[in-house]
Amino acid sequence: FNATTDIPLVDATEPSRYTVDANGSKVYHIIWGDTLSELALEFDNSVDELVIYNHIADPNLIYAEDDLYIP
Question: What does 25-51 look like in DSSP terms, one character per residue?
Answer without folding.
Answer: -EEEE--TT--HHHHHHHTT--HHHHH
